[in-house]
Design goal:
The chain is built from 2 helices and no strands. The protein is mostly helical and 66 residues long.
C-alpha cells in the first residue's frame, strides 16, 4: 500500500468518525457499530502500510528515495 493510499484512507475514515459523532444520521447502536467498522478499516490499513515502504515496495527491501 503506497503512502498516498494510506493517507487518503486514514483521512476519509477520520472525517467519517467526526461526522458519526456530530450528526444524528444513525441511532446510538448504529453509531457504535459504525465506529467499530471504521476503526477496523483504519487498523487494517495501518497494519498493511506498516509492512511496506512509502513507495509500496516490501519493507524488507531498502527504501531509496527517488
Amino acid at each position: 500500500m503506497r503512502f498516498s493510499v494510506n493517507f487518503i484512507v486514514q483521512i476519509l475514515a477520520l472525517t467519517a468518525h467526526g461526522l458519526n459523532q456530530v450528526t444524528d444520521l444513525l441511532p446510538p447502536k448504529g453509531k457504535f457499530w459504525a465506529t467499530v467498522a471504521l476503526s477496523a478499516i483504519q487498523g487494517t490499513a495501518g497494519v498493511l502500510a506498516h509492512f511496506v515502504n512509502p513507495d509500496g515496495t516490501p519493507a524488507e527491501a531498502p527504501y531509496v528515495k527517488k
